[in-house]
């Protein structure tokens, strides 16, 4: 959440390797209340290192840190802070309300909104009331946008120029507004109605003659996203086109803000963590929980649901007690059939969820994808089926037993692969997050299907197995 330009300026004189800081010296300076020593060491650090140190310091020492740093300095640190969402409320509560409000007003608007979205409505109102009117107004404009949309992650700190001005006047505007802008690599061009009409790179602006009109050198082929666009789609577009920033417009093409690549990196990490959490059957995997009760609370809902599905599987097996009583050797291969079908179903599920997340499935026909996965399931099922048939025949000396197990494995893998690809595609079609078709859920469903296929075939051909 840091400014790319400012970060590069601060890094230009540093070595390539990450610079280590003397944590013990900083803590000693805080403990001894040596403000001069602390500031002389701390202010020279990169904002990431400052945030890392801040997160490690215990609450008592952090109180002194608020006295040693101005709200503006704390704002830069806060933009690099990587903590749990619920921890923002506790940290802000440590600060004097006026100090916290001023710090938030110095942050980039989109970053301040991210923090405020984690607070109670009463707290948000309180901070906005204390804050200066201009900052409060900018933050309020972004707060009303729905979460996880382009509007919720855009920043209003950008440079826009008119197409009816000269390069000289545009450079004057750029010099005045650059210190507060989140990035100046792209300068967006608007008309008299503040509609987005073009874009010009910083390089083209610098090398152009002072008296040239902006309309003559700007590019009219400017890509933008709607303010209500899903943040995942925005991230995909920035990745595909290697943009450093992307303008955000309303339905009438009025320029509202920009989304920078550093914010998109946060989005991609958030979306990846969210998808992986759902695939694992866990509600939240953003961090390793230190509290076992909290970790268990997140995992239990899925585990309880899967427990009941597992009991259904057990009751299903019990219906084939007569078959097992006659041919008890069938029980040996239950883990093989159910385990293999669960694995291949999860593989197909991962392909589907990743394809939906990256947009690759939108480019490829769903029917061709289903046919490809069906072919894959058939090939893998045939290979594994033939292999297990040979192994069982050599091991047990029973040809028909090997044949039943091999055919069961073939059909189970084929069906499991189709289930793994079809379930997320159908959910995506119904506008439901396909990641909720998690790995454990698909595995359990495939267990049920494979048991039905296995014991169904064994019952039908029982006379050959005796």
Automatic annotation (TrEMBL):
The chain crosses the membrane at residues 300-320, 326-353, 374-395, 401-427, 448-465. One of its GO terms (cellular component) is plasma membrane. Keywords: CBS domain, Cell membrane, Magnesium, Membrane, Metal-binding, Transmembrane, Transmembrane helix, Transport. GO terms for molecular function: magnesium ion transmembrane transporter activity; metal ion binding. InterPro entries: CBS_dom, CBS_dom_sf, Mg_transptr_MgtE_intracell_dom, MgtE_N_sf, MgtE_transporter, SLC41_membr_dom, SLC41_membr_dom_sf. It is a multi-pass membrane protein. Residues 154-216, 218-276 form the CBS domain. The keyword Chaperone does not apply. It is found in: Cell membrane; Membrane. Gene3D superfamilies: CBS-domain (3.10.580.10), MgtE N-terminal domain-like (1.25.60.10), SLC41 divalent cation transporters, integral membrane domain (1.10.357.20). The keyword Transport applies. Belongs to the SLC41A transporter family. Acts as a magnesium transporter. Homodimer. This is Magnesium transporter MgtE. The gene is mgtE.
